[in-house]
Specification:
Two copies of one chain form a homodimer.
Chain A: H1 38-51, H2 64-71, H3 75-87, E1 91-94, E2 98-101, E3 126-136, H4 140-145, E4 154-163, E5 166-175, H5 181-184, H6 195-203, E6 209-218, H7 221-227, E7 234-243, E8 249-258, E9 263-268
Chain A binds a DNA duplex through residues 15, 17-22, 37-39, 60, 63-65, 73-77, 79-80, 82, 93-99.
DNA sequence: CAGTGGTCTAGACCACGGT
DNA sequence: CCGTGGTCTAGACCACTGA
């Protein structure tokens, strides 16, 4: 039970302040940067323990009061640390139940902002098909992004997304090869639209975070063929790099989408 | 001095709880929804006082301790309320100095994400020119957005933005007429690129918040002429509605930009 | 019903900013 | 130097969840 906690240390009393009531490293806790506020040191330690996979998604992490007791800090400090993690989207609180590790649902992804004008029904029918999956040498920039040495093969997927039968998005996906070998033995039909859940179920890889960029271009003949549109039509290009909890790149992808189906809204403050 | 505070009430003791130590409406304070947590009631009251312009941008709002005393709540509750306002971008704290009302700097605006490939110099030279300014009847959708009755004239501006001498963005701006009449007597040359500062200086109108949407299209002949590009080239269309602190729409604008100069990046969690 | 997070208080010291 | 926000503690009651 106590091994639920073993990890890095948060830091000794830090700052020789008079009011540091707690002998802070009694129970094998605390140590790190010192000048860092305790709630941040705690945040870092919790983030580390979350990323190394010792806690799962279905059970809550240890309760606030047990954390406070374990680390020898006050409840308020624990709450502050957890608030940070909530703000960062790493964790989510459920009153009466506990604090849970959050998986990204990618609701902030730019490809969420594709409108589907063709769908007159309320529920847009979405279908995903993986047309190709093989080991292949990625372009140098992609290989570098995945942390591969020059010339190493990666896993390549060619995927198409349809809405109400209309082809809207074409994805080119590159995966870090050593972590995703299990995927290659999976029939292509079983890699559905929830590809990140497949990564979890089949390869034990959890995407925690991603970076996306969006730009606009006109379809070359090659891209036009991918999307079954006229060359010269405007297309949206979304590139995404996905990372696990430890910050290692797992996936790089580039999506081409018809530009007339895209609208993005934000609020500025 | 006390009139710095007069405004709405936050609410009587709300919830007949035993631990409600403070006779909460002694000094003319508190009242509102009741079931609302106090820190939210306080947040609402502060937001109201900020929006009605009783406090300015150069001085801090009353200190946490004076707010706590005035409202008869604890310091922690005041801090929680202010944290909300910070999170919403309404206010910003400066340690040792005070808490200040924040003006939006629009750093989150989508038009910030225009890359300027033409500029090889480090500093992109930006120039803004207002080509036209007049009273004009806006399209019904714009008039409605500004809260005008059908057929009422608004103030229209045609503005171009250049980078290193190259025309990149064309703006069509519509302003709520009664608040911006002073603008009409200003020479067009004096409305620079910091148009929101002009609104403040010249008309006393402060933009607190805005909503933006982005979509992609191909240039019609009219738009192609605006941007001096070929018809059929891809263009970015950014529409923005700006609001004052009380939530009234001040400005509606639509910007056309060359698509090949746009790249937007986000992080997903 | 026990346990979790949510709200709230009261009061301490610290670090920073301006006078 | 004083006043501001920043960190931290200790302990209370409330509202919700799930067994």
């Amino acid at each position: 039970m106590n091994d639920l906690f073993e990890g890095r240390n948060i830091g000794p009393p830090r700052r020789e302040s008079l009011f540091s009531q707690n002998a802070v490293d009694q129970s094998g806790v605390l140590s790190s940067d010192q000048r860092l506020p305790r709630y941040l040191a705690l945040r870092d330690d919790l983030a580390y323990k979350i990323s190394d996979g010792r806690w799962n998604f279905v059970e809550p992490i240890p309760s606030e009061s047990s954390l406070a007791k374990h680390y020898g800090v006050s409840l308020g400090t624990v709450r502050r640390a957890i608030e940070e993690l909530v703000r960062e989207g790493i964790v989510e609180r459920r009153q009466g139940s506990g604090t849970y590790i959050r998986r990204s649902d990618f609701s902030g992804s730019l490809s969420h902002y594709l409108r589907f004008r063709s769908s007159h029904s309320k529920i847009a029918f979405q279908e995903c098909r993986v047309l190709d999956m093989q080991k292949k040498t990625p372009p140098p920039s992609v290989g570098e992004c995945l942390g591969l040495t020059e010339g190493t093969e990666a896993i390549f997927l060619d995927r198409k997304r349809f809405h109400d039968g209309e082809l809207l998005v074409s994805d080119e996906i590159w995966l870090e090869p050593s972590r995703f070998t299990a995927l290659l033995s999976l029939p292509r039909e079983e890699i559905g639209s929830l590809i990140y859940r497949t990564y979890e179920r089949c390869c034990g890889q959890v995407v925690a975070r991603a970076e996306e960029s969006l730009k606009v271009s006109v379809a070359s003949t090659a891209v036009a063929a991918l999307l079954e549109i006229q060359p010269g039509s405007p297309v949206i290009i979304i590139e995404r790099t996905s990372y696990d909890g430890a910050g290692h790149a797992l996936e790089w992808r580039r999506s081409y989408a018809k530009a007339d189906n895209f609208e993005y809204r934000i609020e500025i403050r």
